[in-house]
């Protein structure tokens, strides 16, 4: 009889969760035609599974480094998950990104559509959307009963998102590509799903919004630290991170001033970014920009293969897609299924635009695609047999994945891919945005003071007519963001809603990148001390082979490679 190891416990957990939660099954590439149970009972069942898994993990063998890493990850992730559940946070999970609401649509984008059986599964799952929407409503209603509510800003954003889906008649548009033999079944199920979403929208706009009135946007220290642990796999020191965010912002802005002078000498950074948005190189049309982004990723794969890492054949396929109407404003990536039948995909929300300036797209697609999210997450899938399915999929930690993706942007700059001043300015603006995220995410939720001793903060206070000691509010954060980010207004508005509704996630990018950079620097120092050359390809290959880790472990593991 084979011994029970941490990796077998982890894989048993994935198998059980796949049965319990059909959305996990679909994400992993396991065929399913059911919608998940989003009710309080469904939440309790998943929590019970986590507790049983932790109990089993306690007696599992951890004799190898791989099992040791897996055990630490599984223990930390499930403990953090149960802390969130026990605090009642999943009873108020309502926001325009990363909540069960989005799963009522996004689950269908992960399903195969190649065969009549695929479409039969879609029809059956679509027919369950009304039940899933009612389950979700029951959970939010339980949150109302327990005083666990999302803030009015999040309610309004979710309602607007549902309105966009309904206006686009999204379900009907989606099933239009289905076979004629299932036309009646697909159309009826799509119509019923749309009715269910309309009823959910009306309930949120009336009953839930009324109950949520007065719920503050800021979550406070206790809830913030709980949320930040979920996204970082670490117990974050918010004051340290806040101060470091200001230091990073100062460093990046100084570099941006020098870069902007190469585009329009004598003009401010803001003026240069505005000029690039209006007069810089751009692509017209959704299909044209999709093709451009596809070419950008295909070229990166070809040129990085064998130099950064050896890229296996399944990982070489990635698709650029246009995000459906009603998506959040930020581009995103969806990972491949475990069998690679569904490839990794990048998604560009167009927000009604038909013209796409290039200055900020290049580094963004290095982040979302290659060598960012796609290279890391698809490599994990390729290495699943050597790790565990848990470590390469649902055990992901935002700070490790987003940190790698931000590090990947920097890596491309270091390797000479961002020599065009406009594109390099776009990269720096993306770095600046992630530093601002740390400042305003922590600042808003903990209602910290804007530090008058910092030069950038002092200038902002003076321009805004505020005295020293002013504390962050959403309105103040939005004004600051507008001064220190070159993106469009609708994107910035969406981002403020995102940070307020998803506390702690916005800090994972820069804190994760900091860990990747520190681990790399320490590994280079160890190599030098040992009298050997540091092998960048070997180090990146080994780093991507670690699988998911929390920030409490990431830097140490990278140092030892």
Automatic annotation (TrEMBL):
What Pfam families does UniProt report for this protein, alphabetically?
Answer: DUF885 (PF05960)
Protein name (record): DUF885 domain-containing protein
Q: Which InterPro entries match?
A: DUF885
Query: Superkingdom of this entry's organism?
Result: Bacteria
């Amino acid at each position: 009889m084979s011994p029970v190891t941490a990796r077998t416990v982890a894989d048993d957990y994935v198998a059980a969760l796949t049965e319990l939660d059909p959305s996990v099954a679909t994400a992993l590439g396991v065929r399913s035609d059911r919608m998940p149970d989003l009710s309080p009972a469904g939440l309790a069942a998943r929590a019970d599974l986590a507790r049983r898994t932790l109990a089993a993990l306690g007696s599992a063998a951890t004799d190898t480094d791989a099992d040791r890493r897996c055990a630490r990850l599984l223990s930390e992730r499930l403990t953090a998950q149960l802390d969130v559940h026990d605090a009642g946070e999943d009873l108020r999970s309502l926001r325009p990104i990363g909540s069960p609401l989005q799963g009522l649509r996004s689950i269908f984008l992960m399903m195969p559509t190649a065969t009549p059986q695929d479409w039969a599964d879609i029809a059956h799952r679509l027919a369950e959307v009304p039940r899933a929407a009612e389950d979700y409503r029951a959970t939010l209603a339980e949150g109302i009963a327990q005083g666990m509510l999302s803030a009015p800003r999040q309610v309004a954003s979710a309602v607007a998102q549902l309105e966009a889906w309904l206006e686009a008649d999204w379900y009907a548009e989606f099933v239009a590509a289905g076979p004629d033999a299932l036309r009646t079944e697909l159309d009826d199920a799509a119509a019923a799903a749309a009715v269910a979403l309309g009823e959910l929208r009306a309930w949120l706009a009336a009953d839930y919004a009324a109950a949520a009135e007065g719920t503050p946007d800021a979550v406070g220290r206790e809830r913030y630290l709980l949320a930040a642990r979920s996204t970082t796999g670490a117990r974050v020191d918010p004051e340290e991170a806040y101060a470091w965010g200001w230091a990073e912002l100062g460093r990046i802005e100084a570099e941006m001033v020098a870069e902007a002078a190469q585009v329009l000498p004598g003009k401010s950074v803001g003026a240069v970014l505005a000029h690039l948005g209006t007069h810089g190189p751009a692509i017209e049309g959704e299909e044209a920009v999709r093709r451009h982004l596809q070419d950008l990723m295909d070229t990166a794969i070809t040129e990085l293969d064998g130099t950064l890492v050896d890229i296996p054949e399944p990982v070489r396929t990635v698709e650029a897609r246009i995000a459906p109407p009603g998506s959040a404003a930020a581009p995103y990536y969806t990972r491949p299924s475990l069998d690679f039948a569904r490839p990794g995909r990048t998604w560009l929300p167009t927000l009604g635009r038909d013209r796409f300036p290039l200055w900020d797209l290049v580094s963004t697609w290095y982040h979302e695609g290659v060598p960012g999210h796609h290279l890391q997450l698809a490599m994990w899938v390729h290495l699943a047999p050597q790790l565990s399915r848990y470590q390469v999929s649902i055990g992901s930690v935002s700070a490790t994945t987003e940190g790698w993706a931000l590090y990947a942007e920097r890596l491309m700059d270091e390797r000479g891919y961002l020599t065009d001043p406009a594109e390099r300015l776009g990269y720096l603006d993306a770095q600046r945005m992630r530093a601002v995220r740390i400042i305003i995410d922590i600042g808003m939720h903990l209602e910290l003071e804007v530090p008058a001793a910092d030069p950038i903060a002092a200038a902002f206070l003076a321009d805004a007519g505020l005295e020293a000691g002013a504390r962050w509010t959403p309105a103040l954060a939005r004004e600051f963001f507008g001064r220190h980010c070159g993106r469009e207004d609708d994107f910035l508005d969406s981002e403020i809603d995102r940070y307020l509704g998803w506390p702690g996630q916005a800090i994972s990018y820069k804190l994760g990148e900091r860990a990747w950079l520190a681990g790399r620097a320490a590994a280079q120092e160890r190599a030098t001390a040992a009298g050997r050359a540091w092998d960048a390809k070997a180090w990146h290959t080994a780093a991507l082979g670690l699988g998911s880790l929390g920030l409490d472990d990431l830097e140490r593991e990278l140092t030892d490679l």
